[in-house]
């Protein structure tokens, strides 16, 4: 919906992809079965483990941990605002 005769701004897909870059990271709970696809360098893990992945705003995996608090602390130590996704 527009106000008056002002058209809404359009955001390019490229600009949208860079939104939050260098400022925002997200924490997502994952299962150990998902680790090889996100963190190929990680050692083999027992199935069924609940872990937490920290990702850059563009989705690039940053770190993997067994605690949400550690993921958030890592974001803060890198001057990133952490948000959670479900």
Summarize the structure.
Helices cover 22% and strands 29% of the residues. The protein has three helices and four strands; from the N terminus they run αβαββαβ. The chain has a four-stranded mixed β-sheet with strand order 3-2-1-4.
Features:
alpha+beta
Question: Any overview of this molecule?
Answer:
The chain is α+β, with helices and mostly antiparallel strands. 22% of the residues lie in helices and 29% in strands. It contains three helices and four strands. The protein has helices spanning 13-17, 35-38, 68-77; strands at 24-31, 50-56, 61-65, 81-85. A four-stranded mixed β-sheet has the order 3-2-1-4. The two termini are 29 Å apart. The relative contact order is 0.23.
Q: Which strand order spans the largest sheet, edge to edge or round the barrel?
A: 3-2-1-4
SSE succession? HEHEEHE
Main β-sheet, in a few words? 4 strands, mixed
| Overall residue-averaged pLDDT value | 83
Unreliable spans are none
Oligomeric category: single chain
Report the end-to-end length measured between terminal Cα atoms: 29 Å
How does the overall form come out from the CA principal axes?
elongated
* Rg measurement, Å: 17 Å
Amount of beta strand? 25-35%
How many β strands by DSSP? 4
What is the fold's blueprint, element by element?
Elements (H helix, E strand, L loop, with lengths): L12 H5 L6 E8 L3 H4 L11 E7 L4 E5 L2 H10 L3 E5 L1
Parallel strand pairs: 1-4
Antiparallel strand pairs: 1-2, 2-3
